[in-house]
Amino acid sequence: MKSTIVFTSTLSSNLMAWITNYANKEKTTKRAIIEQALKVYQEKIRKDELKETFERAAKSSEIVKMAEEGMDDYEEQLDNLGM
Questions:
Q1: pTM exceeds 0.70 for this model
Q2: Which terminus of the chain has fewer CB atoms gathered within 10 Å of its CB, N or C?
């Protein structure tokens, strides 16, 4: 299975000029710049989604109760270990 695919798209000339200049300055490829930017963007989206999930969970009294019970169990286990 191929680990890369060919992808064709268009970019604004200003953005492409910036990518080209930055790639030359960093002595890397335009592909590497674009790939890194997409990875950063992907991570941001993942973090935003997790944050939204936790915010929804914090508003659920049932989930908060389960978390509190879990913390009580954890505290009991620490006490049993003498910590």
A1: no
A2: N
| Residue 8: DSSP 8-state | -
Q: Is 30 exposed, middle or buried (0-12, 13-18, 19+ CB in 10 A)?
A: middle
User: What residue numbers bound the domain in which 36 lies?
Assistant: 29-80
| Length of the chain (residues) | 83
Has residue 73 been placed in a domain? yes
The answer to whether residue 18 sits within a structural domain is: no
Q: Mind listing the pLDDT tens digit for each residue in 20-44?
A: 999 999 999 999 999 999 999 999 9
The reply to whether 44 falls in a domain is yes
